[in-house]
Amino acid sequence: MSTTLKRQPTISVDESLLYKVASKIGGEEAVKIVKELKKRGKATEEELAKETDIKLSELRKILFKLHSFSLVTSENVQDTKTGWLIFYWRLQEDQLKSVVRAQKRRILEKLQARLEFEKTHDFFYCNDKHCGRYTFEEAVENFFKCPSCGGTLQHFDNSKIIEALEKKIKMLKEELEHE
Ligand SMILES: [Zn+2]
Fold first, then answer.
1. Is the pTM higher than 0.70?
2. How many domains does the chain have?
3. Mean pLDDT estimate for the chain
4. 126 CA distance to ligand 1 centroid (A)?
5. What are phi and psi of 80, to 5 degrees?
6. How many Å lie between the centroid of ligand 1 and the Cα of residue 110?
């Protein structure tokens, strides 16, 4: 029987942010561990070491780091056959969600500030994209001559930029609402 439906590796925005957070905490190896935990739900250190090819001692170090940021949690589960306790690690999804949410909010704030800047300023350019854009004030100060190449500065239509920013902001807002 095929399990391809269950294991579709589609990466959502949330998941890529999750891996970014893991990577900031413990590098590529932390990403491997988080991916494995995401797939399995819970796993022992031995299982994780085997799947990720990370040395057990190194693996523990990274797990404790992830734990200190509340991204993973541990639990003891009694084996039904042997009666022994098995030590498992699992992702703390709620915590991850709030980390991801906070990150999205920061991105949203930055985009909104950028949109405000674009909407409240007129821009000028010399037709050479390497020279960049100048605000009206900067253009006046330079007598409408490009400070880097000397070309004549003309009005720059930023409506496409505004449109793209508004689209992104709308998308992020919807995502934040539906979580
Ligand atoms: Zn120029």
1. no
2. 2
3. 89
4. 5
5. -65, -30
6. 28
